[in-house]
Design brief:
This protein is of the alpha/beta class. The protein folds into three domains: 83 residues, no CATH class; 150 residues, D-amino Acid Aminotransferase, Chain A, domain 1, CATH 3.30.470; 55 residues, ATP-grasp fold, A domain (Dna Ligase, domain 1). The chain is built from eight helices and 13 strands. The strands form three sheets. It has a five-stranded mixed β-sheet. The protein has a four-stranded parallel β-sheet with strand order 2-1-3-4, with no helix packed on it. A four-stranded antiparallel β-sheet has the order 6-9-7-8. Strand 3, helix 2 and strand 4 form a beta-alpha-beta unit.
């Protein structure tokens, strides 16, 4: 059973892609605006919090944390840990991890907002998909940005130049499931804002060849190099399932831009263009299924004792 927010869309994790063609049935229950559960709760073996972190959902998370404290079934992604994904708290939680680089992020109200050093990254609080996200180079651009936005609160972070030696920006999406990493895509583009579809991966055989290589060598290369860092992220966040957007810097360190339980991982790309993806993505789907069964088994054994 997935516990979802009332607004749908970007508020919630798209869990249906993880369980498509699975032998696990997914039922959705939707909270009301105050975070209350519906009166009719379907029978279930395990529950997962599908509602994602956002500032506007804080009241719903507070009530949900209380309601789930004594829940009679295992809970995946307890709500108090989902809140660790806020952009400013993420930095505070993970900044001490060796070999991990996070741009420092502050949440600032408009009336006290100022920028001391450029370039800097700014976005409205609770924005997603790059909406309102800008790199600001000087005071003039900063003032024009504020004039064009009606947001009352912003995230401000240091700009991290993560270009590779060839001038391209590379961003990996990794699912961290029960502490185990699964690669979901590699996007390559010449723009610092990296999203998979605008990166034109479907239009470049060279980019797809690099993504294929990354996916096929992920466990024997990337995971071995960053195993301890990924384990530290898992332990500090406390989440059973989370999506990481990250990059490898030129010195070999891992840069983390976002951790979110709502990240979209799927296998809907055309197979004739991306023939290497189905088998790789099935590993993540299988890992998610195994995590659910493992949690049910562990907590069932604990209750029996």
């Amino acid at each position: 059973m997935a516990i979802m927010g009332p607004q749908g869309g970007l508020d919630n994790a798209p869990l249906e892609y993880l369980l498509e063609n699975s032998d696990i049935r997914l039922d959705l229950v939707f909270l009301d605006e105050d975070g209350r559960m519906p009166k009719a709760i379907p029978d279930h073996d395990i529950a997962i919090v599908g509602l994602g972190e956002s500032y506007k959902n804080r009241g719903q998370f507070k009530r949900l944390t209380s309601d789930l404290r004594s829940w009679s079934r295992p809970i995946v992604n307890r709500p108090e840990f989902v809140l660790n994904c806020s952009r400013d708290k993420l930095y505070d939680e993970l900044k001490s991890i060796p070999h991990l680089v996070l741009p420092q992020t502050r949440r600032v109200k408009r009336d006290v907002l100022s920028v001391d050093a450029f370039p800097t990254i700014i976005r409205p609080v609770d924005s997603h998909g790059g909406q309102g996200l800008e790199k600001i180079h000087n005071e003039g651009e900063f003032q024009r940005y504020l004039e064009s936005s009606d947001a009352t609160e912003f995230y401000v972070s240091d700009f991290l130049d993560y270009r590779s030696a060839d001038g391209q920006f590379r961003k990996l999406r990794i699912a961290l499931i029960d502490g185990r990493p699964y690669i979901c895509h590699l996007a390559i583009t010449d723009h610092w804002i990296v999203h998979y579809i605008p990166a034109g991966m479907d239009l470049s055989a060279a980019k797809r060849a690099e993504e294929k290589w990354m996916m096929e060598t992920f466990e024997i290369d990337f995971v071995k190099r960053h195993h301890k860092t990924l384990q530290d992220i898992h332990e500090k966040l406390g989440l059973d399932y989370v999506i990481l957007d990250c990059a490898v810097l030129r010195d070999g360190a891992l840069a983390l831009f976002e951790a979110d339980t709502r990240g979209w991982i799927h296998c809907v790309d055309p197979v004739d263009i991306f023939p290497y993806k189905p088998a790789i993505m099935q590993k993540a789907f299988d890992g998610f299924r195994e995590m659910l069964l493992s949690r049910m088994s562990r907590e069932g054994d604990a209750r029996a004792r």
